[in-house]
Design goal:
Length: about 350
């Protein structure tokens, strides 16, 4: 019995000698390994939905006046006459090389290949999502700090009201409301995306067109972050070490920004990782409402038409992006809280 306990103690000492960063690296490696079956499962389900969808793609593409020979030729061109698992294996192996095939309903030369659609439109959607999450994090932390410091006072009630409305009111309500107020009534912001291509305009020139979509996308994540930051600030300011430091004469402002703020950022970082997926899917409605030439608008159009190669590619791209963002969050969290690094 004593030998077993001694062996356990030796093993515990060895574990403590391992650097926390090594343990964190192992944790990230395990997350990456789990990402592989996750992506395989998502790709299989997405590909299978196209198989189970009602109707026949070849018949749809042939049109009302397409004869049996035309439908048969289209089925052979698309590979729909081959077994499901064979087509899925070809889709998965091609997707690893960034080849998602051709769009079934191309609008021009640039919209023929799905990879070209992703290349030209993904940057706009990711750019808007990144700007929205930065805006949400800044104002969410700011409002949460103000609410936590002035707990049960007017600023706190105002922040709680904002967070409640931000969570309850959906994007498809905010979009026409913003258009009505800022574009039609006040006429201070443009209602839709410019008719010229975005490549011909600088980022500064695009700011007025991006302002409403980005703010609408940021509203709900900002409301969630406000609630989390408020709760973390209230909890931190009630800790004994805060009271002790204040009793010793440490300035309150220094205490808030040097200690309380750092503890507040831990749940905020976690919320950023979970909210990024909402921003990617929420862009579907916002981009359609403001006619933003991003992946959201293109995906909605693909869903209406049944253009499954585009739908499958967008789902996989968003899944990879969501996994990578959460990996970044896993790296940032130990930097904010050493306790997470020690327990990694």
């Amino acid at each position: 019995m004593s030998s077993a306990s001694s062996a356990a103690e030796v093993q515990g000492v060895r574990d403590r000698r391992v650097s926390p960063w090594v343990l964190l690296a192992k944790r990230i490696g395990a997350r990456l390994l789990w990402a592989i079956p996750t992506l395989v499962f998502i790709s299989f389900i997405t590909f299978g939905i196209a198989e189970l969808a009602p109707g026949d793609a070849a018949t749809t593409l042939a049109g009302e006046h397409g004869d049996a020979a035309t439908v048969k030729r289209i089925r052979e061109d698309l590979g729909l006459n081959r077994p499901f698992l064979v087509r899925y294996w070809e889709f998965a192996t091609n997707a690893l090389r960034g080849d998602f095939g051709k769009s079934w309903y191309p609008l021009g030369d640039q919209d023929t290949y799905v990879r070209d659609i992703l290349r030209t439109r993904a940057w706009r959607s990711l750019q808007m999502a990144a700007l929205a999450i930065v805006l949400a994090a800044f104002f969410g932390v700011l409002l949460g700090m103000v609410a936590g410091i002035w707990h049960n006072r007017f600023p706190d009630r105002l922040a709680v009201a904002f967070s409640t409305l931000g969570i309850c009111v959906p994007n498809f309500v905010l979009a026409p409301l913003f258009i009505l107020i800022f574009a039609l009534k006040l006429e201070v912001l443009p209602m839709t995306w410019p008719s010229v291509t975005a490549a011909e305009m600088s980022f500064v020139e695009l700011i007025p067109y991006m302002l409403m979509p980005v703010v609408i996308l940021a509203t709900r994540p900002a409301a969630v972050i406000t609630r989390l930051a408020r709760a973390a600030m209230i909890d931190t300011l009630s800790q004994d070490f805060i009271r002790t430091a204040l009793a010793k004469g440490v300035p309150f402002t220094r205490m808030v920004f040097h200690h309380a703020l750092r503890n507040t950022l831990v749940p905020v970082a976690t919320a950023i990782g979970t909210s990024f997926g909402y921003l990617l899917t929420g862009s579907f409605i916002v981009e359609t409402a403001f006619r933003v030439p991003g992946l959201g608008q293109k995906t909605i159009d693909a869903i209406y038409k049944g253009d499954y190669p585009i739908i499958q590619a967008v789902v996989l791209l968003f899944a990879v992006t969501f996994i990578l963002v959460n990996l970044v969050v896993d790296v940032v969290l130990p930097m904010l809280d050493p306790r997470i690094r020690e327990s990694a």
